[in-house]
From TrEMBL:
Binds ribosomal protein uS19. InterPro entries: PRC_barrel-like_sf, PRC_RimM, RimM, RimM_N, RimM_N_sf, Transl_B-barrel_sf. GO terms for molecular function: ribosome binding. HAMAP family: Ribosome_mat_RimM (MF_00014). An accessory protein needed during the final step in the assembly of 30S ribosomal subunit, possibly for assembly of the head region. Essential for efficient processing of 16S rRNA. May be needed both before and after RbfA during the maturation of 16S rRNA. It has affinity for free ribosomal 30S subunits but not for 70S ribosomes. The keyword Heme does not apply. Keywords: Chaperone, Cytoplasm, Ribosome biogenesis, rRNA processing. It comes from Usitatibacter rugosus. It is found in: Cytoplasm. This is Ribosome maturation factor RimM. Residues 1-81 form the RimM N-terminal domain. It comes from the Bacteria. Belongs to the RimM family. GO terms for cellular component: cytoplasm; ribosome.
Length: 161
């Protein structure tokens, strides 16, 4: 759902880089799991603000800048159960991460490393022989096959965009 990018202020607030379509959606979940690899810890969300300059949060037990600094770079997730089902016409961004991306001609372009929002469009970050950024819109994304773990795109390996 996101990553802690930095401390925010001196009272233990954290700044977040969100991987969700709407950053304030994280505020809907009062329990966050923070960590990486096999090391995760649950935190209760006390306060949250999605501002134009930064998305910030205050977590229970993180009381000063040093505590917030210790969380820098860690992932923020919520339980899958808390999210519910995405539905047949929707997909969670986290379900796209790791999927193989192939062109209409069948050429492998890489795997989805993440997504970000540009304001109007979501963008796939595809990591392969080089990083590609492909707008997640019907013009380019022709299909998402969850079972095959593949996204088919109208995008060729030699595109510079």
């Amino acid at each position: 759902m996101g990553r802690i990018s930095a401390p925010f202020g001196i009272q233990g607030w954290i700044k977040l880089k969100t991987f969700t379509e709407f950053p304030d959606g994280l505020a809907d979940h009062d329990r966050w799991w923070i960590g990486s690899g096999q090391d995760w810890k649950a935190y209760s969300l006390l306060e949250f603000a999605a501002r134009p300059a930064a998305t910030v949060a205050k977590l229970e037990g993180v009381d000063d800048r040093n505590g917030a600094e210790a969380l820098r770079g860690l992932e923020v997730v919520v339980s899958r159960k808390a999210l519910g089902e995405a539905g047949p016409e929707a997909i969670y961004w986290m379900d796209l991460v790791g999927l193989e991306v192939v062109s209409l001609s069948g050429e492998a372009l890489g795997k989805v490393g993440g997504l970000f929002e540009t304001g109007e469009t979501s963008v796939l970050v595809v990591n392969g022989e080089r990083e590609r950024m492909i707008p997640f819109i019907p013009q380019y994304v022709k299909g998402v096959d969850r079972e095959a773990k593949r996204i088919t795109v109208d995008w060729e390996a030699d595109y510079d965009a």
